Amino acid sequence: MNQKEAITRLTEHGIKPSVQRIAIMQYLLTHFTHPTVDDVYRGLCSKIPTLSRTTVYNTLRMFSEHDAAQMITIDDHRVCYDGNVEAHAHFYCNRCRKVYDIFDEVSPLLSCKEITGHQVSDVQLYYKGVCKECLEKESGKETDN
Ligand SMILES: [Zn+2]
Ligand SMILES: [Zn+2]
């Protein structure tokens, strides 16, 4: 499942579809959870015993260089990848460390091709804070007490 989609995504972006590349792209296209290199490696290493962490790291970097995936650098310690290459913003929860997709609210900012005379090729927009799930959990705790 999805293998065709993964191959298409690779070839459309000028990437030769090797077995490992297909598997990594397939993982991205089935896990829209903004996985890190480690997440992808752990998810695939049992299926592909020859896979190394370095290969995953290099392959994901290469995907983002070819715009076949988005590289998201929330901070220096956490780089994650997104198989969704449509322009969207991200919200990072400081509590549970989940990364949420934000679409409509910020679309004019994300789709701009020019800003004060500069030509835009890439837009990265991050919000940080506490997500609604964590807020709900916390307010639930308070009423318990
Ligand atoms: Zn949270
Ligand atoms: Zn995303």
Structure keywords:
single chain, 145 residues, alpha+beta, Dna Ligase, domain 1, 41% helix, 19% strand
| Helix-and-strand structural type | alpha+beta
What small molecules accompany the polymer chains? zinc ion
What's the arrangement of strands in the largest beta sheet? 4-3-7
Give unreliable regions as ranges.
Answer: none
Ends apart, CA distance between termini: 48 Å
Tally of individual helices: 6
Oligomeric grouping of the chains: single chain
CATH architecture tag of the largest domain = Orthogonal Bundle
Mean pLDDT: 90
Radius of gyration: 17 Å
Total beta strand runs: 7
Element-level helix/strand string: HHHHEEEEHEEEH
Question: What is the name of the CATH topology of the largest domain?
Answer: Arc Repressor Mutant, subunit A
CATH class assignment of the largest domain? Mainly Alpha
Give a description of the structure.
It is a single chain. The protein has two domains: 83 residues, Arc Repressor Mutant, subunit A (Orthogonal Bundle); 60 residues, Ferric-uptake regulator, C-terminal dimerisarion domain (Dna Ligase, domain 1). The protein has 145 residues and is an alpha+beta fold. The model has no long low-confidence stretch (mean pLDDT 90). The strands form three sheets. The protein has a three-stranded mixed beta sheet with strand order 4-3-7, with no helix packed on it. Strands 1-2 form a two-stranded antiparallel ribbon. It is built from six helices and seven strands; from the N terminus they run H-H-H-H-E-E-E-E-H-E-E-E-H. Helix 1 crosses helix 2 and helix 3 packs across helix 4. Strand 1 and strand 2 form a beta hairpin. One zinc ion binds next to helix 6.
